[in-house]
């Protein structure tokens, strides 16, 4: 097992990464506060892992709530189901919520924990690759609005992140690929050496080589933990974690949530950001090709949906959380491994990107 720390002073917490951690109550129990534990999961994950998760908390008062599965349920109506369960069971403000599932469960459970009785503790047990490398770490929690991704939420850090890499055994191939999009992102924004490694090992990761997966998860979490420790509330460099997301979130909302997975949408979005970076005179043709090769090898899309017009993109992107005084701020690349945030670009280049970076007819 490897343990990393998200260094946030007296709110620091561990990320434990290893095989069989769902069988190790001693790792999880020290992070429970109070006597009541509510496990939040969904209809797909519950039959796979809920019994094991419940056994981790033997001796506590354990309840669970099983939500419908899908990005289209990451909303206020589903959030209410968690509050209903907590209130019905008379859970008090010392209770602990446990997110058992992918990023949707992690985000919605985290937000429930941030707001139930003005804030209770929670533990992340992520079971998708995407959640293990990104969403379980860093404390961004929330739900979607029909017109914008993650528009309602809070920063609320977990007590611990428990990554049992064995849970990936049951994950569908398409979901594994979606997780690789966020893994590749770390290489692009700040870790060129990791990008080089990924170019050589993406096929091993797709083949679920356990050692390589463990390494990719550790290095991703290390990158994320560093950024979050330096800028917890996205006053500066944390925005780099949003590479491809202004485009990608527009795709997710524009396609009605769930048709394009988050990882798929941001892969196409990172290519749009890459193409614009090339138009800005920064990214070379060769680097853009390396990006496209990496996403294609990972079985991810590199072009946005055919039926989303530049006008629709602009309408949705105008609601992005990084917008300042009406300007859409974007994360762009100087090179592979070197990202920056800017609102200072010729509007014409954004338009050209939306028009030109399209699947060839
Ligand atoms: N908070 C953050 O920092 C952050 C970061 C990245 C993404 N996100 C959010 O995360 C969400 C995407 O997360 P995701 O990709 O995990 O999607 P997801 O939560 O929808 O999970 C994908 C699918 O895998 C299933 N699943 C989960 N674990 C499984 C397992 N072990 N075996 C079999 N099936 C399993 C789920 O039920 C679901 O059908 C998006 O809403 C995105 O906005 C948040
Ligand atoms: O942790 C962050 O910061 C990120 O931006 C990670 C992203 O991968 C993630 O999708 C996040 O939820 C996007 O945040 P948002 O603020 O754009 O909603
Ligand atoms: Zn993301």
TrEMBL record:
Recorded family membership: Belongs to the sugar phosphate cyclases superfamily. Dehydroquinate synthase family.
GO cellular component terms listed in the entry, alphabetical order: cytoplasm
Record's protein name: 3-dehydroquinate synthase
Gene designation per UniProt: aroB
Span of domain 3-dehydroquinate synthase N-terminal: 65-177
Catalytic activity field: 7-phospho-2-dehydro-3-deoxy-D-arabino-heptonate = 3-dehydroquinate + phosphate
Keyword Transcription attached: no
Major localisation: cytoplasm
Subcellular localization(s) per the UniProt record: Cytoplasm
Organism this protein belongs to: Sulfurivirga caldicuralii
